Amino acid sequence: MFCNRKAQAATELAILGSLIIIAFTFLINYSEKINRQQSYLQQTFRAALKEAGGARAPDGPRNAASYTQVIFRRMPNVGTPMELGQLQSFNNSSNVLWEDGTSQAENGVTKYELNGDIISLNPGDAPLAGTIESATNNFTNKVNTTIISSNQSAGGNIITTKTLNAQDILQADVSISGRQYPTFTYTLGTDGKYYSNPTSLEQTILNRSRSTQ
Amino acid sequence: MISRGQATLEFSLIFIIMVALLFGLLGLWKWSSDNIIKRQLRYNETRIQAGSRTSPGEPGKPFTAEDIQENQLYLFK
After folding, report:
1. B32, B43, B50 ranked by CB distance to A31: nearest
2. How far apart (Å, rounded) are the C-alpha atoms in residues A78 and B30?
3. Residue contact B51–A20, C-beta within 8 A
4. With contact defined as beta carbons under 8 Å apart, do B52 and B60 qualify?
5. Which residue of A has its CA nearest to B39?
6. Is A121 exposed, middle or buried (0-12, 13-18, 19+ CB in 10 A)?
């Protein structure tokens, strides 16, 4: 096919290398995704159990609890590490009815957690039986990415440095049971997690740098 | 003859690299699935504690069933 054997070897290497990188990309992303899904599922059920069991007031009445968790994360970008990874949302909901027949709470507990912010729904917000409820939630990402490539040659050595500075602001307009909540704002940290109250620069800007010599 | 020697050398090198990459992929997959099992085991082990009335950190109250009263016996008839 190729007249030049070097060209064929280079092409084969390029194809093989790409396939290997694709395999690693798929595996790392899938692995992180299923691990996080399991972890969040467990967390949601435990949170619902805690609310239903009246753990805050050990002698208080037990009741029914509904706990919903929505978490956004940036997944690792294996193929092109100097670009932001895919935005992934994890949603879980658990319902627990804990009844011991001796005590009864007046109202159940309904909580909605968004990236660590917990919204407690008032009992009066619950829809009446038989009614159909629709809610619209808007999630907007504003991404500002800067990639800096630099080459330094000194003493016969060439140092190539690539730096990624990414700022990702997630704004969430949440409406639950007809009540519109104030806009939630989150910033992407270096670990791919969204923070509502960032306390350091690492929780505000995703900064990544690699250099080869 | 030289060409054949070069091909063998190249195959040996690429074979070692491919095996290393394959083991890396398998190792990554094993680590990932092991994590799921370990997390589930820890989750199961702490289930009773999470379902107890006392919160973690407080001394647990042993559960004892109360004696059946005379007026409750009809439940079992």
Report:
1. B32
2. 19
3. no
4. yes
5. A39
6. middle
Contacts of A34 (CB under 8 A, 6+ apart): B32, B36
- Cβ-defined contact of B28 to A27 (cutoff 8 Å): yes
Tell me which residue of B52, B24, B3, B10 sits closest to A13, measured CA to CA: B10
Tokens of A140: 């907007």
Complex confidence, ipTM: 0.77
Beta bridge partners of residue A167, listed in sequence order: A144
Instruction: Tell me the residue type at A90.
Output: F
More reliable by pLDDT, B3 or A209? A209
Counting Cα atoms < 13 Å in the Cβ hemisphere of B42 gives 11
Residue of A nearest to B34 (CA): A35
Put simply, the answer to whether A24 touches B32 (Cβ < 8 Å) is: no
With H, G, I as helix, E, B as strand and everything else as coil, classify residue B37: helix
* Residues of chain A with C-beta less than 8 angstroms from the C-beta of B40: 38
Residue A165 CA, chain-centre distance (Å), reads 19
pLDDT tens readout for residues B6-65: 888 888 988 898 899 889 999 999 999 999 999 999 999 988 888 776 554 444 445 555
